[in-house]
Amino acid sequence: MSNRVLVADLSRHQGEMVTVKGWVRRTRAVSAELAFLVVADRSGEAQLVLSGSSATTLPSLESVVEVYGLAVTSRSRAFPVEVQVESMVLLAPSESLPFPINKPELEVGLELIDRFRPLCLRHPRFQRVFRVEQQIILHFEQFFAGQGFLRVSTPKLVATGTEGGAELFSVNYFGDVAYLAQSPQFFKQMLVGSGFERVFEVGSVFRAEQHKTSRHLNEFISLDIEIGFVEDVNTLMDMEEEFIKSLLPSLHQEFGEAIKCPSEIPPIPRLALEEAQSILEKEYGRTPSSDGNIDPEGERLISQWAEREYGVAAVFLHSYPRPIRPFYALPGYANNTLTESFDLIFRGQEITTGGLRQHSLPPLLQSMKERGLNPEKYEFYLQVFRYGMCSGPQCQDTIFKV
Amino acid sequence: MSNRVLVADLSRHQGEMVTVKGWVRRTRAVSAELAFLVVADRSGEAQLVLSGSSATTLPSLESVVEVYGLAVTSRSRAFPVEVQVESMVLLAPSESLPFPINKPELEVGLELIDRFRPLCLRHPRFQRVFRVEQQIILHFEQFFAGQGFLRVSTPKLVATGTEGGAELFSVNYFGDVAYLAQSPQFFKQMLVGSGFERVFEVGSVFRAEQHKTSRHLNEFISLDIEIGFVEDVNTLMDMEEEFIKSLLPSLHQEFGEAIKCPSEIPPIPRLALEEAQSILEKEYGRTPSSDGNIDPEGERLISQWAEREYGVAAVFLHSYPRPIRPFYALPGYANNTLTESFDLIFRGQEITTGGLRQHSLPPLLQSMKERGLNPEKYEFYLQVFRYGMCSGPQCQDTIFKV
User: Fold this and answer.
1) Does residue A66 form part of some domain?
2) Shortest CA distance from A22: residue in chain B
3) Which domain holds residue A71?
4) Which residues in chain B have their CB less than 8 angstroms from residue A88's CB?
5) Which of B142, B356, B399 to mutate to test the interface with A (most CBs of A within 10 A)?
6) Is A211 on the interface with B (CB under 8 A)?
7) Which end of chain B is more exposed for a tag (fewer CB within 10 A), N or C?
């Protein structure tokens, strides 16, 4: 028996005897002496032809089979090459399915999708989600590693939350209480100040938000970067935009039509939050909320507006007010009631949050106090600021100039 | 002022005015009018020359400075190019250090290393640990992605442990109890059976082992792979060996001397656990333990033996007895009191564990019962075996053969 051939490679094996392994996705008995099977493996789907007495022994759908046969040109449009089966082995039978999974769309509700998750994942639409995710993550890593970033893995079991204790899962840590990290923020900054300057992480984060909306997740994979010696929040937005633009061509090439991904986009507009609020007021008659923040509906509308005005359903919002940003956000250079921070909104969802950090210890301590945080509990984090943080310009001091 | 130049790139800027930013690692005042500074950035170290009145204003060690000056050829052996400083800005001062970090070795105990972690990480020896880790992980991802593996991220908050509840951290999950995943095992298998066939993960795992040994960790990053349609445990060992061999040349090139990493190694010997026990008995006079397992000292000795006999301090041990392997381990083809499993032992430490899985539902259920596990609690995992698992040969059944 020959080595296994993936169905995507069948065309390179026409006229050869091949072994194919996979899941029986569809069966069609044409007569007592002719049947067609579609078998799926990780590379795609292939058509198998059973003739003679073998056409009467069709395995149940989703059974796993190994077939051996001749790869030949087919008259089928969907499958230019098919396999004339000479022998078939049942590697693993399938029980009868709770619902069909061989339709173009999986026509079942979320409850069944959850309950039969491994089965539903065999549907090409679900498979694609994972493949897109892989492509984004691997590109992210290559992109930033190529720019001198170090890939790091920060602790997930922590003693203190990033934002001061809200929305943390607590863990029984040998009788003590520990928490699941809601962000790698502190550790990223510590690593930047530890001399690495540029770090990135692809890792789990946890948020104890009891929810049922698409804007909340208890557990997700966060793509994080952190850099030192940055003076302008536009540098960060430039970097993110450059990353996105470098990602699109390969995503478009592989999944373009299926996920409506273009190969290039116009520049993403950048708006101060206040400007965005004015636009929402003028264009959509919405009054800004009292804390100056933008709500989910506002994020949806400003994405619509960006699509109409700039041809891209994304917008960088910057200059968020201090009270709605974390204690470590750097106050605005021009207006210190604001921050040098930004969010990237895409199709109505915040997909990134970023900003310059307060790297000077006295104002950082002051900011913690204002929020009722006890600096003693954060000494593990604050220490790096005592021994030379690779800051932006906010705490610079000329030693001499010739 | 020119753009920043990394110190590793200074030689390409000789004769130019450059800006350098970094940490003041060493200072040496030669006279009232001449001083040398060594500044470190993420790329390495550079020598700065202060002359005239500027030589009297030396910043404290580990302060972060930005200097501007002329890059010139130096007579120093360590630094072929140095910067004649014209101006220096203090970006962030450092308090006085608890201990010197500019020695070839950091001469402090573990307690101080823990307490001053961000500071200690600036030492090149600690920096290297992170850089080696990055190189291994990125290579791992590229290697397996290149062989048709999908990068996945499995849940870390789980309802049931992989091995049946031991050594799990418990999490308060909105009033219920959840656990931190001690391994992605179940999810890897489910994804393989969901049609992906080959998956890998780089992710956090958690073990509630109260410890103070180098063989235990509460939290670590696990590099995992899982494949379907595998029939021989040697295939898995081949794959791992191929991965290791592909990794060594680049590790050797970048870190070889510092971490004693060769660019190639002889084939790694493969021993049944029983053979290893005989060797330990004959060569080192050690009697095997009653459960047939090998202990830490045995792992250390068998690595020594492999180094002596095969020129590599690593050994694959296989054919572990069933009682000391998980319930999902496939029983041995030739002897069903053993398993088709292996560990890779390197310098006395188990660095990998692997094996073929039981993919047929009835014996899998039987194995769970024997260990007192309630299959109902594992239905989320067992489901994939009902609907066609991409198995090895253990449950095959010929449908027909022409």
Assistant:
1) yes
2) B390
3) 7-92
4) 398-401
5) B399
6) no
7) N
Given its phi and psi angles, is residue B320 left (phi above 0), alpha (psi -120 to 50 degrees) or beta?
beta
Q: Is residue A211 part of a domain?
A: no
Question: CA–CA separation, A193 vs A385, rounded Å?
Answer: 8
Q: List the CATH number of the domain containing B45.
A: 2.40.50.140
From B55, which residue of chain A is nearest by alpha-carbon distance? A400
Neighbours of A326 (CB within 10 A): 19
B119 and A384 within 8 Å at the Cβ level: the answer is: yes
- Output the CA torsion sign for B357, B361, B363, B365: positive
**In 10 A of CB A129, how many CB atoms?**
11
Query: Would you say A35 and A1 are in contact if contact means Cβ atoms under 8 Å apart?
Result: no
pLDDT digits (tens, 9 = 90+) for A250-272: 999 999 889 999 999 999 999 99
| CB pairs A-B closer than 8 Å | 278
Instruction: Read off the pLDDT of residues A31-46 as tens digits, 9 standing for 90 and up.
Output: 999 999 999 999 999 9
What per-residue confidence (pLDDT) applies to A256? 85
Portion 346-365 of A in contact with B at CB < 8 A: 359-360
Residue ranges of chain A whose pLDDT lies below 70: 1-2, 162-166, 392-402
Q: What is the mean pLDDT of each run of 10 residues along chain B (402 residues)?
A: 86 97 96 95 96 88 96 92 95 95 93 95 96 97 97 94 76 95 95 97 94 82 96 96 97 92 97 97 91 92 98 98 94 96 96 94 95 92 95 61 63
pTM: 0.95
User: Per the domain annotation, does B87 fall within a domain?
Assistant: yes
| B223 at A interface, C-beta within 8 A | no
Residue numbers in A near B402 (CB within 8 A):
52, 54, 86-87
Using alpha carbons, list the distances in angstroms from residue A384 to A205, A363, A380, B24. 23, 15, 8, 15
Yes or no, beta carbons of A89 and B398 under 8 Å apart: yes
A193 in reach of chain B (CB within 8 A): yes
State the total domains in chain B.
1
Number of neighbouring beta carbons within 10 Å of residue B380:
17
Closest-approach residue (CA) in chain B for A398: B89
Q: Does A96 touch chain B (CB under 8 A)?
A: no
Strand pairing report for B44-51 and B64-73 = unpaired
- Chain A hits for B23, Cβ within 8 Å: 195, 388, 390
Record: contact B206-A156, CB cut-off 8 A: yes
Tokens of B385: 């075996």
